[in-house]
Every structure is written in C-alpha cells, then in structure tokens.
Amino acid sequence: MAQNRSGGTGGSRSSIDSKLERMADALEEGEALLEILHDDEVFERELEEIFAKSWVYIGHESEIPEEGDYRQRSIGKDPFIFVRDENGEVQVLWDSCRHRGTKLCRAEKGNTTHFRCPYHGWTYRNTGELVGVPQKGNGFPDLDMEEKGLHGAPNVESYNGLVFASLDPDAPDLETYLGPSAWYLDLYFKLADMEVIGDPHRWEIDTDWKTPSENFYGDNYHVPMGHKSAIDVGIGSATAKGEKESELYAISDVGGHAFSIYQIPGEDFFWGHPPEVTETFHPERLTDEQYQIARQSGVSLGTIFPNLSFIYLGGSDDPEKDTVGTFCLRQWQPIEPGKMEAWNWIMAPKDAPQEYKDRVYEVGVGTFSLSGNFEVDDIGIWDGIPEAADSVFAEQVNATTVFSMGRGEDTLAEVDDSWPGPGTVYREGGMTDENQLEFYRKWHQTISEAH
Ligand code: FES
Ligand SMILES: [Fe+2]
After folding, report:
1. CA-based angle 83:87:88, to the nearest 5?
2. Rounded CA gap, 409 and 4, in Å?
3. pLDDT above 90 as % of the chain
4. pTM of the predicted model as reported, rounded to 2 decimal places
C-alpha cells in the first residue's frame, strides 16, 4: 500500500517530518518505521534533539579514581574528556582547544595535571582553566585567560558512581530524568559498590544505535532463536538454561527507560554471586522490597534512554566451571546512519575477592563482549537491518517493524499488580513488546519535542 509522501519532492524520499508522522501512526498500531534505522536526516536530528538534550552516560567514577586520571568519552559524536581534576572533582570537558579548535586529548586514557594543545601549545589545567599561552605577552596582551577556559558540559551528575552529562542547560536534574528507574538501578549500584574491571572493549557494528538499545529494553523473544547455539552448549546462565524455576518480568513506564528481570522464587541467587561476595553487600541501603527482588534476581537487563544498557548474567563461559555474577555495562554510540560503536565495561562488586573479579572478567569477555558467544550472535543479525532500512522500497511499502506481541486478550503476558516496585510490570515478560515500544515512544517524543 503506497503512502502519501506529503513531505517529499518529486521522486526523492520523503522528509523527516513525514517520517515522524508515519512513525506516530505506526506506534498507535504497536509498530515502528523501518526507515528510521538508516536515514541521514533522522541521524542528524537524533544528534541534536536526543544526544544533545538527554542525560547521556559518560563513565563510572571507578575509571578515574586518582586526581588527574582521564578518559576520552563522547556525547553523541561530540568529543569530551572525563577527568578527575586536581581538586578531586569529576569534570566533563569538551575536547576542543579554544584557540583553533583541535582536540587536546590524543590518548584514550592517562593521568595528567594539564592538557597541552599539540598545535600551538595553549595549556589548560585539568579543571579546564587556561593557564599557558606561548608568547602571550608579545602576541595576545589583551587575551582574557579566564574567559578562554575549556567549555564544560553544562550539567554533570553522578548516580551511585555512574556519571552522566547533559548538554542542555535547561535539562531537568538527573534524578528527575531517571525517574522511577532509579529504584531499579539501586539494585545494581547501591546494594554493592561496583567497579569497572579493566578497560572498556569497543567495536563497530553495521547497525543503527537504536537497534541494540531497543533490544536491551527487553527483547527476550530473540533469545531461543538468536542465541540457540550458545544456550545448547550450556554457555550462559542457570536461568537461561532452564535449570531453575524462574519467571521473567518486563518493567516499563519508569521514566521512558525499561528493565527485564528474572526472578527465582525463594532463592538467594543475587545474579549468581556466591555467599563470599553477597556478604560484602549493603542490604541496609535498600528497602525491603528492593532487597527481596535483588535476592531472587537471575539474569537482568535494561536500558536507560537513550543509549546506556546493561546485562547482569549469572553465567559462565565454560559449562565445566562455576557460574559467577557478571555485569556488563554497554553504551551504543552513534557513528553514522546505519553504523555504531559498542562500548562494553565489565563490572564487579568492589569488595569481592580479586580472584573472583578476574573470573567475572573472563566470563564477561566470553559471553557479552566482542569475542563473546552471545555478542557475535547479535552482531551477525543486527547488521542486516540497516541494509533493508535504506531501501527505496522500504518507503514504497511503508515498511514497519512489529512490536505488538502481548497485545490482545489471549496472550501469555499479563500485568502483575502485586509487583512491589514501580512501573507497569508484565509477568511472562518474554511475551510482550511493551518495553521495546516504550523505547520508540520515548524516541519519538524526544525527537519531536522541539519541532
Ligand atoms: S589550536 Fe590549540 S593552541 Fe592553537
Ligand atoms: Fe541478544
């Protein structure tokens, strides 16, 4: 069925406004528009209206424990330096020299008191303050050094060690942005002090950043098919292998973010952590309801809009070895239409024994990282989407992607009113697309807001 191309001109493809209108119509039907997964205009608009307006993840405080520690980071495609300054404060500085604009930071990480520009040598303290201009007296006697410090992100806040920044001076505070999803983040980041192990792994994927972000909102439907080989050979979690009675809950309506949580009734499972690790936890930091859910938690995953996801896997990379609780925090970085870079940080409770943390790292690498069994499954599937999305024919047939699973009377998924946490919660969470729809509703609302 051909659609009207009200925004288009001649034979060219339709405008972004027409796409957003058709996307709104699709969402009403529990669907989304395929074209938005490979589109130049949509991509540009996302950088301006989503990445430059949302709270975007920068890094974990444990990555820069010492004064002077820094890491290169980005917000959308904009380069930033994540640094702990000489006063111990976390800064998120735009990586662009105030003189001619080049990037100051040429190493991914390091420790420094100052950043010296490689072009003409302007030098900045790690607070961002400009303190050195070669030949200043002879060349720039009137230069206002104070005014020419590095620009910092207008808003920077930490939530239990997770540092986010927003480039929107009018952004709500981080707590407001996270909304009720903070209740769930507490399970992972408050019950234990978490730390990043090693460096983040990064790899490019020929797919749009929205696809993995939406997948980690809770596409549990793909697991038996997409990850069949890994599950068949026994790699993965106790819950995924079906060794334990468990129930999957899909949680949406928590500020536009979403979670999927396996519960193993009556068990002290704690994502697969053994007692020597769980005894380092801080139950007093959680409510009884939160603690109860943490206690019974098997595989858990989720996404904070737009592009921060995680998976907590009680798993193993070797069926012969014990499972450990492995936390993989991931960020889906936009590179260009139809192309992104994945960042993956493996994390463990800070107070766990070092030997255990080493094992967590091994399992993380073997499951959810570039060489991980589960990761390669997904990459090899996701890269087929933008190719089709870029088709001329996609518009001709108004191609949509379907998120209507769980709608209607006789589906397995049903709202669980007895769930003690916030949000709309579905039992049989693998049988509903409500979480993924939440992603696209939030996307559509955010990208349309200013227009
Ligand atoms: S561009 Fe940085 S000193 Fe000239
Ligand atoms: Fe997957």
Report:
1. 55
2. 33
3. 83
4. 0.94
